[in-house]
Structure formats: C-alpha cells, structure tokens
Amino acid sequence: MPYVPTLDAAVPATGAVPSSAVQRGLARRAVPGWAGRLAAALGRAGFVLALVVFLALPLAAILARALVGGEHAGLGALFAIVSSGDFAGMLWRSAAVGIATMAIVIPAAYAFAYGLARTRVPAKGCWRLLALLPLLAPSLLPGIALIYLLGNQGLLRPWFGDITIYGFWGIVAGEAFYTFPHALMILLTGLMLADARLYDAARAMGAGTLRTFLTVTLPGTRYALFSACCLVFTLTVTDFGVPKVVGGDYNVLAMEAYKAVVGQQDFTKGAAIGLFLLAPAVFTFVLDAHLRKRQGSTLSGKAQPYAPGPNRGRDTAFLFLLAVVGGLLLTLVGVAVWASFVQFWPYNLSLSMRSYDFDNMDGGGWLAWRNSVRLAALTAAIGTLAVFLGAWMTERVPARGLGQMVRGLLRMLALTPMAVPGMVLGLGYIFFFNNPFNPLNGLYGTMTLLVLCTVVHFYTSAHLTAVTALKTLDPEFEAASASLKVPGIVTFTRVTLPMCLPAALDTARYLFVSAMTTVSAVVFLYSPQTVLAAVAVLNMDDAGFIGPAAAMCTVIMATSALASLLLHLASRALVARTQAWRYARA
Predict the structure, then answer these.
(1) How many structural domains comprise the chain?
(2) Integer Rg of the chain from CA
(3) What is the model's pLDDT at position 524?
(4) Is residue 133 part of a domain?
(5) Higher pLDDT, residue 170 or 570
(6) Spatial distance between the Cα atoms of 218 and 221, rounded to a whole number of angstroms
(7) Percent of the residues in the chain that have a pLDDT greater than 90, as a whole number
(8) What is the pLDDT of residues 418-469, one digit of tens each?
C-alpha cells in the first residue's frame, strides 16, 4: 500500500480552539439547514460523477473493447489472443520477473528500513533521502544507467565477459531500482509503529535478539510486508519502461501491450492484455482490503514509543548495509547523470552539453520539459484541492439516507485507482475519450485530459493522506460551525484546509513529482503539442539517442528535486506562521 504520512495532533495541548476564535473567524449570515444539505448532496454527486466519467467508464471501455472490438467480436477474439503461441510465455516471463524482483527488493528494503527505524546509525535523514532518490526519476532511468554500466560498450563490461544485461536479469535489476523506494516507505512505516512494552516483556522472559525479531518484530510488520510484496509485484508486472530499454528479446506482457497499441495499432489485443495486467492488481487490492479489516489496531492508547538502545556491533553492521545499498542506488543515478554530459560515449569522455540540445533531436525538445512542468504544477494544484475536498465530503460532512449510499460509493471509487495500473488506465482513456461518439472526444490529446488522467492515477494515495489528516481534527470544529449556521464550505476553506496545511503540501509535492516522472498512464494520450518529458525519454531511446535520453532524465530529476525542496521550505515557513497554535503552552 502507498505510504501515507500522518499529521501531528490537531489540537493544542491546552485543549480545543476557543469558540470565540471560531466565532470571530467564521462570522457569517445564517444559512438554512436545507441549503447546506443540498450543497453537500450535490457536491458528493459531482465527485461521484467525475470519478465515474474519468475512472469507471474508461475501465468499462477496456472490457468492452476486449470483448466486442476488432474484426471478430465476442469472447472468441479474446480467446484467440490469449491462446496465441507466445501469450502464455509472456505471462510466465512477467510473473517470473515480478517474483524475482520481489525476492530481491523486499529483504533489502526491510533491512534498510530496519536500519533506519530500529538502530542508532548516524545521518538517518541522509540515508533516507538517498534511498528515495529513484522516486525523482522516470522508470526508464535505471535501464539507461545499466546500459552505460553493463551494455555492449559499458564501463564494467570487460569484468563480466560474455554476460549481457539485456534480458531477464537486466529487467530485474532495473525494476529493483525502480521499486525499492516504494517498498521502503511501506516497511519503514510498519517498523516505526512499535510498542516498547512488547520488547521489554521479551527481554524479561529471556528472549534473545533473533527470537525477539521472529516473535515480536516480524509478526508486527506482517501486514506491511504483505503490502510491500503486492506493490512491488504489481509495479514490476505493469511497468514497460525498464523492459523497453534493457528487455531485448525477453518479451513481457506490459511491453507487448505497448507494442500492440503504439506499433501495431491492434487495440483489441492491447485491451485484452490490459485486462490481464489489471487482474493481479485487483486481486491484491481485494485481498489487502480483507486483511486490513482483520488487522485491527497495532498500537493501543497505552503504547510506549520504542527507542533502540546502543549496540555498536548492530549499528556498524547496519551502517555498512545502508552504505552498500545506498551506494548502488547512487551509482545508477550518478552514471546516468555523468553520461548525459559525455561528448561521445565511450570514445570521447570529455564533458559537453551536447546531449542537452533537445531541440535538434527527436523526442519533443525543451517543449516536452515545459509541458511536464505545466502538467505537474496543474496536477499538484488541482489534485490537492480536489483530493482534500473529496476526503472532507466523505469523512467530515454528515450524510443521511441516500447521502450515505452516495458517500459509500464515493469512498469505493476513491480507493479504486490503487488497483488500476497506469498503463491500463491509459488504455481505457484511449478507448473512451478517442471514441468519435463521445461528446468529450475533444479532450483527447489536450493538456486538460493529461491533468485529469494524472490526478485520477495518483488519487488514492493522496486521498488516504487527506483522510489521515482529517481524522486527526476534533469534530468540535464542525459542531461549532454548525451551531453558528456557517456554511460547510466556509469551514473547509477557512478552518479545515489551513489546519491540514502540512498534509496538503505533502500531497502537492507527491502529485508534482509523480506527474513529472509518470509515463505509463500518459504515453497513449499526448499530442505533438502536449508531449511530455518522460515520454520524450522513451522517444529518444527509440531513436537511438541514449545520451539525450539520459540528459532528459537528469533534467526531470533536477526539476523534481527543486520543486520538492521549494515545497518543503514553503511548508516550513507556512506551518511556522499558521500552525503555531499547535505548540502553544498553557
């Protein structure tokens, strides 16, 4: 499951915000109760309609295209595609890559997270930032870096003889780099939730370090482990960026879907493969929801925070492990960045800006980067407001009768994007919005549709962040506003959203970086005027411009890092001004 940042206590130590402050801040003419209820109902209905149009109907379009599209309509066409000669082989190869990546990433990420949460290694913040570095780059970057390291003319090729990076192990290595930070965030969250009393009891009963780990730590993080395994497997199976660069003739389902739509214009085949790519995500999503209900709370109100004690041997061992894993991640990123400044690989390694002359090569030029910045900014602004407004309607606005049913439907639709891979969502947008009979056909190829698709793609993670923040607020705020006959939307804009400012800025940062690096959901939706930077990397790699592709990845990473830094600084400054009441002393 995606990492969901939590918010600090929502009320100051001295108690709730005084009602006089609420009265001064929200003084308005009284609004009839029926008007507020009508506005809430219309708001929920609008959100449900938006999610149906931009999520449910595109997914239904995939199913319809797979079953009734093509020259031979019906299940026969789908069966013919599935029973074709290499389909079973691609299915097995995709599963093998997913399982192998999971077997590498989960132990490494668990050990890394353990070192950050349960040891006293120095500079934990720096190690965490280093581990999250791959989040700033598109999934094609590890493939490009592996070519520079172990390709036919790679730096390390003389050391490895006839071993080639193209194929199964190249895909696994690239996907391991790509999925590592996602698994780390989930496992780190699980390891941070620990009750020190359990460890005190284990020591009192004479349990050693290994037995304590097997009987206390591991069972306490089993849900996080399951979520991380599901996420890594799904991300690996549905990603085509790494297989596109280093896959060679090792064909997998995601790559076949991309070739069917872009290369062969066989949309029925692409839809059929899309259904298979959707299956593992839906299965893990349903199973995850079932386990979440059985999980219960991991910490009671009497829980005590766990603080690791000093242990030089343990800390030294985990410091070495963090250095090795961090060094591997930094090496892949560093090689790609360095290669982007090389004059002519591998014959002239002098530094040059030649690869950054994007306007004189295929891919989209600097226009692609400007479009990506525009997409990311619009996604962050519109997405953050929509996410918090939708979460507020589902969690804070009362509902009765039909309104409760609509609220339940809204909650279900808000969690659905988590189970939909980006490529599947992009395919659905092709079949739905590119249909000439669709009145929304004019959106296809526009920046508006790219923004909407990106917001929907990353909606669930942002929604869970907003829900977590809203649940920390005392219900007295809404009660006080209701007693003053203040419209709910005024309470939301003037009280709720400002109080949730830290989580809102975290959501904006997450949406900005995700929009800058995404490729799978938008690769089918752009036009020559709306080409994006991550798509330009794909196009330049297709054209054989691997140096410029590495350069564009570098530009994407630098832009994402700069935006993250600016939002972090803005968060600190705004929180210092608007959240000082949280830390007020009696």
Answers:
(1) 2
(2) 25
(3) 87
(4) yes
(5) 170
(6) 5
(7) 31
(8) 878 888 898 899 989 988 889 999 999 899 999 999 999 999 888 888 887 7
Contacts of 437 by beta carbon, 8 Å cutoff, 6+ apart:
none
Judge whether 299 lies within some domain.
yes
pLDDT in the model for residue 305:
63
Domain limits for position 488? 38-74+348-585
Residue with tokens 């915000």: 17
Nearest 5 degrees, angle CA 510-CA 513-CA 518? Answer: 115
Predicted confidence (pLDDT) at residue 72 exceeds the cutoff of 50: no
Task: State how far the Cα of 170 lies from the Cα of 431, in Å rounded to an integer.
Answer: 33
Asked whether residue 124 falls in the same domain as residue 261, the answer is yes
The CA–CA distances, whole Å, from 503 to 387, 467, 568 equal 11, 10, 11
Q: Rounded to whole angstroms, what are the CA distances from 438 to 55, 67, 69, 568?
A: 15, 19, 16, 41
Could you identify the residue written with the tokens 């990546």? 101
Please check whether residue 316 lies inside any domain of the structure: yes
Q: Which segments within 332-392 are labelled E, that is strand?
A: 342-344, 348-351
User: Across the chain, what does the average pLDDT equal?
Assistant: 81
- Please provide the DSSP assignment of 95-151 as one string: HHHHHHHHHHHHHHHHHHHHHHHSS--S-HHHHHHHHTGGGGS-THHHHHHHHHHHS
Q: Kindly report the backbone phi and psi dihedral angles of residue 343, in degrees, each rounded to the nearest multiple of 5, phi listed first.
A: -65, -55
Instruction: Reply yes or no on whether the pLDDT at 562 is more than 80.
Output: yes
Residue 344 has φ and ψ, to the nearest 5°, of -155, 100
pLDDT in tens, 509-528: 999 999 999 988 898 899 88
The end-to-end CA distance of the chain, in Å, is: 39
Phi and psi for 349 in degrees, rounded to 5? Answer: -90, 15
